Amino acid sequence: MRWIIGLVINAVILLLIAYVFDGFELAGFWAAIVASVLLSIVNAIVKPVLVVLTLPITILTLGLFLFVVSALTLMLTAALMGDAFVINGFGMALLASILIALIQTFVVKPLRN
Question: How far is Cα of residue 77 from the mean position of the Cα atoms in its chain?
Fold first, then answer.
């Protein structure tokens, strides 16, 4: 049950980012739900591999390169969804990944406890 609530919260976060920024587009709420599911799958399978492969640069940047890895997983999710989820450029993906991390850290995680 907690996983489903997390998916819905992530979908709402994605919709909020799509509402605020022009370069981040979602087709609707169901597209946001599908994007949230795909993003969680990509984060579970692809992200650990990318983190291990980029470990030296992550250490050199004191962990800030993890935002780049998150942006890459977000762009991969958008590529898998096609026209229902569009991100215009890597900069927009990087900004969105930072916002997602901040919102989850300061809003979602305190609500779960």
Answer: 8
Digit-coded pLDDT (tens) for 1-19: 778 888 899 999 999 999 9
Q: How many residues does the chain have?
A: 113
Q: What are the residue ranges spanned by the domains of the chain?
A: 1-112
Q: Rounded CA gap, 25 and 27, in Å? A: 7
Tens-digit pLDDT profile for residues 43-57: 999 999 999 999 999
DSSP the chain: -HHHHHHHHHHHHHHHHHHH-TTEEES-HHHHHHHHHHHHHHHHHHHHHHHHHTHHHHHHTTTTHHHHHHHHHHHHHHHHHGGGEEE-SHHHHHHHHHHHHHHIIIIIHHHH-
Residue 107 and residue 10: Cα distance in Å, rounded? Answer: 11
